[in-house]
TrEMBL record:
Belongs to the Toll-like receptor family. This is Toll-like receptor 22. One of its GO terms (molecular function) is signaling receptor activity. Residues 804-945 form the TIR domain. The lineage of its organism: Eukaryota, Metazoa, Chordata, Craniata, Vertebrata. It is a single-pass type I membrane protein. GO terms for biological process: inflammatory response; innate immune response; signal transduction. It is found in: Membrane. PROSITE patterns: LRR, TIR. Keywords: Glycoprotein, Immunity, Inflammatory response, Innate immunity, Leucine-rich repeat, Membrane, Receptor, Repeat, Signal, Transmembrane, Transmembrane helix. InterPro entries: Cys-rich_flank_reg_C, Leu-rich_rpt, Leu-rich_rpt_typical-subtyp, LRR_dom_sf, TIR_dom, Toll_tir_struct_dom_sf.
Amino acid sequence: MHPGVKEDKTRLKGGSECIKLSIIFLLLNINHFVVPVTGYSLRNCRISRGKALCTKNKQQVTEVPRDIPSTVEGIDLSSNKISKIHVSDFKNFPILTTLDLSSNKITQIDTGAFANLISLNSLNLNNNKLDILGDDLFYGLSNLTELRIHGNKIKSVAPTSFKSLTSLTFLDISNSKLHQLNKVHLIIKHLPNLQVLYLQNNDISYFNSWELTNSSLGLTSLDLSKNPIKVFNITADIFPNLTWFNIGQCPQTKPTKWDVRNKTFLSRVSTLDISRLHLKMDDMKMLLESVNSSLTTLRMAQMKHYLLSTLINISCTIPTMSKLQLKQNQLSVIQSHFFQLCVNVTELDLSYNQIQNIQEGAFRSTQGIKILSLSHNKLPSVPAPLNDISNLTELDLSSNEITKLECHDFANMTKLRHLHLSYNSFPALQDCLFKDLVKLQVLKLQNSSIADLKNAFKNSLPNLIKLHLDQNKLTAIKHGDFMGLQSLQNLSLHNNQIKKLNKGCFIGLTNLTNLLLQANRLEEDSIKHYSFNNLKNLKKLDLSNNHIRYKKSSALHPPPFSNLSRLETLAFYVQRRRERAYLPCNILQGLTNLLVLDMRNLHLPSFPKDVFKYTPQLQTLDIRSNELSDLSPDVFSPIQSLEKLYISTTNLRSLDFLIDANLTKLKFIEAKKNQLHVIREELINSLPALVYLDLEGNSFTCDCDNVWFLLWVQKSNQTQVFDAYNFECNYPAVMLGKKLMDFDPQSCRDNIDFICFISTTSTILLFMVVSYTYHFLRWQLAYAYYFFLALLFDAKNKNRQTHNQYDAFISYNAHDEPWVIRQLLPKLEDEQGWRLCLHHRDFEPGKPIIDNITDAIYGSRKTICVISRKYLESEWCSREIQVASFRLFDEQKDVLILVFLEDIPSYQLSPYYRMRKLLKKKSYLSWPRAGEHTELFWEKLRQALKTREQPEDDKFLLNVMDRP
């Protein structure tokens, strides 16, 4: 139903619809009393892979929603405005394993609020406003293994807050205000299985081991970073299992006092982060010595209080240390002596410095380095000292200021597998550039202003698997540009300026599976059959956001993708609408294994009927943002394997085309921002596998036409209708701006207005039927009516006379009495000798008139009715012919003779004459006109009186004029 329809037309019409609606109500009520069913369509959440997602909604919730199904395994309520957790909020979630309440405004959690979450493993309370953790706060969470309370500014902890968390292994209570370790002690003393503890930024000034415990802890990871620690004192071996330790980024102006009396107390630490830590040099040496036998990874960022080369030399004397990170140390030059002692280092990170120069021999002693990162520096070229690292397998030179690459830059890097050169500026490559990189597998050259490949990939890089050339300035791909890359599987060429794909441009890429060409300047003439005919193993092709636009839907010869039989994903969409385009009917020919097709925003007005007959395996189809106001089921019939359909913003007025498409495997439909008003039951029943339906942004008819859909949304436990409780009404006017789910379906069943409407309509229809019947069928109905009355009336009269007293009863009007007295009586009684009965002469005085009439008619062999216009107007004459008709109908004898004194049109005759004519089809007598002879009239009347009353006696009648 659409706007503009009469406003009061808001109820179901038709008996069948009323019956159907009643059945729906009955079934729903039965379900309500037998098995409580909870639907998947929630007011503020959606279900995805067994998890309720209640985050990033248009309207943030202020309390835990009550309609989340109890069968979910996860609930995400992050980024809302919840201020309090009540005891009843999570009462019925027996299998819930993850709960995310981060980024709310929670200030209070009732005791026992989590008591029923017996299966919960992970709880996230990050970034709320909890400042006090009360007694038994986490009661019932005996299976919880991960708890995050980061960013709550917690100041106080009750002694029994963490008492129930006996299985907890991970705790993050960073960014709070604990200040003292004795508060931490109240936490961890109840956590026998705790392994990871994050305490960063808690304003802790003194770390004394005796404040935590007198016995050892099972911690394997401890984060104390961003605390202004003045004294770090360990007097007992409380961390025998500690392997990961972060004490860096302490905001101290004065050096921290380091007091670890026994060097073995940290002897198992393998990863140490002392970034920005301010210690005296002697204390720093003591710290590094305490991890001398176990350290493998050392992070020293922002070490502004030290001579960095000294720290490097000290740390490199640790024989087990293999990974050294030196980020953000404002290094501009790597001097030759920096890494002389780092013979055991295999990974070196020098990123995010200001390095412009690396001195000769700087890496001569570090032959063991395999991974080197020099990204985000200011190198103008590839440093020559890198060739000294013969074992290098991964080199990152991205985000520097390299303007030119030389043939000798990578001459000695024969073991290199990963090379990152992106975000530099070298417009051209050289054919000799990568000739020695025989083992290279990944090459990243994106965003480097490359305009010419210069045959760099024609004869080198035989083992390259991934090549990133996106975000450059390439304008064309020439014949054989990638001829040497026989192992290449992924090629990224998107966001260039490519206008042309020359013949043979992808020759040699027989193993290529992914080709990204989106966001270039390719036109329809650029996409030819020969462009892709060498890519027989291609599985993904992205041609989106180019300038490809077909002006006709006629077939292409040959089709561009006819050789890509293994292609599984094809993207053809654009981001901005242009002028109208069409789809060639055979553009998908050859794509027999295509699974995903993206054709968004092509400005298509329609699809050719057989366009999908070439893609029988298609599972996902995206045709959003086209102008497909009407779709035919024939278009979708060939793709019976379809599981996901995206048809948002296509001006669709109905989804009924899916009813006949027979898409029994369709699970997911996104039809946002269309013009859908009514969702029919037949549509939903035709999609038995549907589990997700997104109709956001449509305006619905909020009346009885959508009652079935409304009730189904609330009760379906198979299909989730996303954002259903925010569906808005556009009709009728009284519901404008309201929500579809707020419409009361009860009004469609027993609303008095609806009853009045039906009653009024029925009355009007009945009046019209009666009027029509009276005008066209009144004589036939009158016949039936009087025939029925005759059966009742004559039952008591047909035996009341054993013999006839008279030959004929004369029925006439007083106006015609002179003719009866002067003409009829002399002829019939005096001349012919018939016995006649006349009411003024033979009726019994004092007897009721109707009885006299009845006795006279049943006491006579015949009844002669003298018909004139005055006769037709007389009430008593009408009664007389009525009684005679009763006798006629009951006895089925010819006892009625009609004599017409005037010519009377048929429409003026009484119903009894018309019924007589319908029943017997007899001839009638008419009094001759003036000047005509009357002898024949009297003879015919004599013969009519003389004949017996049997129907076969009609044959003896002479022809007389039939009445019309």
